[in-house]
């Protein structure tokens, strides 16, 4: 049943919904004529029609018993709800009153005439009570032909199956409230086994009502549809041979989904019942999902550390190449060489962009985070989305007015992430289809399920962004790989495989969550959740004076810089840059040499320019702190693209100016200005 169709019917007219309900009842009647048990499907269909969280069919005479009767039929969207549902329902106080549709607590209750049957709808939509009050008589008449025979079968079966000599009351007190599936099986001389008892958890795990468990063959419940279910075959063979069994396999539930069960089968050993077995099944589905999620997180962390290290080394190489090419450009007077130098510089810039993406995936800090309005950012990207997608892709942006909280993220990274998702959606649709971007805000706790696995979310207030396409979906076999760096299903000329990896890294360091909510033939939906910000925004002017060309600048007055970098070639580039800006340089390749030379007093040094990550037992951040203790006027410029290894995770925690590698002369001079160095126009320029 399509929930969109239901919503459309309710919005159109009451008669349209009535026609839809009758049509669904007609389908159920066809199944009943073919011999199907339709009690569970009735609950499921009416749960969809009423948009209820649960629907229960039960005999009115059983409403006050301690546990849910075996003959009751129940459908819950949340399987855990099944275990507590009966505790709510059994307090219903109107058994002695006339059968009238009414609201009671969170339920709409529909007494069905002639069958002594009650149908409870938990948390249905607002329209459902009025709808039932208007149409309950013709709907009940349509259902009676199915429900009357099957409810009579309820009562016929209720006394047939007993525990054959076991004290039923003691047995039920032990197992009825267990969270494990517990079945008692009776093995006949023919080798066929039948379920003669099922506890409540058996229904909550399998989603089959006990009326479809008790009295039915074990093979019907534990059926194997493929050759991978060898343990199911082993279970049935052990049962037939009257042997114990321990194993794990996937059980197909009533809704077609699968639950991972660890099964223990043991013979009860009663002298009067040699063929009596107890089967205990522990649901390990969530545990398995947690293991998969943890393995994925550990893998991504390991890949992040590896990628970060590679990108750091690559940045040093690019810094040397980019710096030397720029120095050649600045000193070159041959126009013929200009073209080649420009080409080489552009190639370095492409490498810079690549390492930036790698570091965005691997790093953990939010050095440029600020309060951002999700609706404003998405709205501001609409034109860019249109330009990035083909004219055959229509864009539908739905910004929820209820979003009142900001989020604390790097605005540029968020824009890059959304653009990457939009481009991936375009490619998934083959350049033709519909892109839907929505926003919202809600309180969330617990686990968010999706085809890509479960996501455990820290309880709190979250702002979310949904990006959905109308493509063909993501194949199940690659869902676990989509966040891996360089993994792509596209042609090499169309992508690097870093888009989703970069987005995943950004979301994680923003303390957010990301998951595939839905994927299939009708498209894929990614959703990002970000914690609502509790940080007060500090208003800063984003307008800066126009920068002068570094070729025409020199430092004001006399200035001496202490330059430290373990890469000798990069150290030379830095020294040359300083020389061009009129800065006197003293250079070192080891911070320990600096400490030996100056101790904790920088003396006549005006500014320390140092790489951050260096071997030898001291990094640039520690060197700056050491020199700054006794030289408080010392200016510091840190140079790195990989900060988080030193323990600083937030921009506000960093006391020094940071320049990311690789950089050019203009970026270098701008960073010096931000570190407090004054420049003047070069004479004669």
UniProtKB/TrEMBL annotation:
Keywords: ATP-binding, Nucleotide-binding, Phosphoprotein. Residues 309-534 form the Histidine kinase domain. Gene3D superfamilies: 1.10.287.130, 3.40.50.2300, Histidine kinase-like ATPase, C-terminal domain, PAS domain. It comes from the Bacteria. The modification 4-aspartylphosphate is found at residue 611. Its EC number is 2.7.13.3. GO terms for molecular function: ATP binding. The keyword Ligase does not apply. Coiled coil: none annotated. It catalyses: ATP + protein L-histidine = ADP + protein N-phospho-L-histidine. PANTHER family: SENSOR HISTIDINE KINASE (PTHR43065), TWO-COMPONENT SENSOR PPRA (PTHR43065:SF42). This is histidine kinase. It comes from Shewanella corallii.
């Amino acid at each position: 049943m399509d929930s969109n169709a239901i919503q459309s019917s309710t919005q159109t007219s009451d008669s349209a919904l009535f026609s839809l309900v009758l049509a669904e009842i007609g389908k159920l009647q066809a199944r009943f004529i073919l011999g199907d048990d339709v009690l569970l499907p009735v609950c499921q269909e009416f749960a969809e029609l009423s948009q209820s969280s649960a629907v229960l069919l039960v005999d009115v005479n059983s409403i006050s018993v301690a546990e849910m009767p075996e003959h009751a039929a129940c459908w819950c969207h949340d399987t855990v709800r099944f275990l507590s549902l009966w505790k709510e329902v059994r307090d219903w106080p109107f058994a002695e009153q006339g059968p009238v549709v009414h609201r009671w607590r969170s339920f709409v209750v529909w007494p069905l005439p002639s069958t002594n049957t009650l149908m409870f709808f938990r948390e249905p939509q607002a329209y459902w009570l009025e709808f039932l009050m208007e149409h309950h008589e013709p709907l009940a008449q349509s259902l009676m032909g199915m429900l009357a025979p099957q409810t009579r079968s309820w009562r016929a079966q209720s006394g047939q199956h007993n525990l054959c000599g076991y004290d039923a009351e003691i047995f039920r007190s032990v197992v009825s409230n267990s969270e494990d599936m517990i079945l008692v099986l009776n093995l006949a001389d023919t080798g066929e086994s039948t379920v003669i008892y099922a506890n409540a958890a058996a229904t909550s795990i399998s989603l089959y009502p006990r009326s479809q468990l008790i009295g039915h063959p074990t093979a019907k419940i534990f059926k194997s549809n493929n050759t991978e279910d060898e343990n199911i075959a082993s279970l049935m063979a052990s049962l037939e041979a009257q042997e114990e069994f321990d194993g794990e396999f996937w059980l197909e539930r009533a809704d077609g989904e699968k639950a991972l069960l660890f099964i223990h089968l043991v013979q009860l050993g009663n002298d009067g019942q040699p063929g009596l077995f107890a089967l205990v099944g522990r649901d390990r589905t969530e545990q398995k999902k947690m293991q998969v999620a943890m393995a994925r997180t550990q893998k991504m962390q390991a890949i992040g550390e590896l990628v970060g290290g590679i990108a750091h080394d690559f940045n040093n190489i690019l810094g040397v190449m980019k710096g030397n090419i720029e120095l050649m450009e600045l000193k070159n007077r041959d126009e013929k060489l200009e073209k080649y130098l420009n080409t080489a510089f552009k190639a370095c810039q492409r490498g810079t962009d690549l390492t930036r993406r790698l570091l965005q995936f691997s790093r953990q800090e939010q050095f440029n985070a600020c309060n951002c309005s999700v609706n404003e950012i998405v709205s501001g990207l609409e034109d860019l989305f249109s330009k990035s997608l083909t004219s055959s892709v229509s864009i539908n942006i739905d910004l929820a007015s209820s979003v009142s909280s900001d989020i604390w993220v790097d605005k540029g990274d968020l824009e890059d992430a959304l653009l990457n998702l939009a481009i991936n959606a375009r490619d998934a649709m083959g350049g033709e289809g519909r892109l839907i971007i929505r926003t919202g805000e809600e309180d969330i706790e617990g686990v968010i399920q999706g085809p890509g696995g479960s996501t455990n979310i820290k309880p709190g207030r979250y702002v979310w962004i949904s990006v959905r396409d109308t493509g063909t979906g993501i194949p199940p076999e690659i869902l676990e790989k989509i966040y891996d760096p360089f993994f792509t299903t596209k042609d090499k000329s169309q992508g690097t495989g870093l888009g989703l990896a970069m987005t995943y890294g950004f979301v994680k360091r923003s303390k957010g969550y990301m998951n595939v909510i839905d994927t299939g033939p009708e498209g894929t939906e990614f959703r990002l959740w970000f914690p609502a910000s509790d940080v007060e925004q500090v208003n800063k002017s984003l307008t800066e004076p126009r920068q002068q060309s570094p070729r025409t600048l020199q430092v004001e007055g006399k200035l001496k810089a202490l330059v430290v970098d373990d890469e000798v070639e990069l150290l030379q580039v830095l020294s040359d840059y300083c020389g061009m800006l009129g800065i006197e340089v003293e250079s070192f390749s080891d911070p320990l040499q600096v400490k030996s030379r100056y101790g904790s007093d920088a003396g006549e040094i005006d500014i320390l320019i140092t790489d951050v990550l260096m071997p030898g037992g001291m990094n640039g951040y520690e060197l700056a702190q050491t020199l700054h203790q006794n030289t408080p006027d010392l200016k510091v410029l840190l140079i790195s693209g990989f900060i988080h290894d030193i323990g600083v995770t937030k921009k506000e925690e960093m006391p020094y100016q940071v320049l990311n590698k690789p950089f050019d002369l203009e970026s270098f001079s701008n960073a010096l200005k931000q570190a407090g160095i004054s420049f003047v126009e070069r004479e004669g320029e």
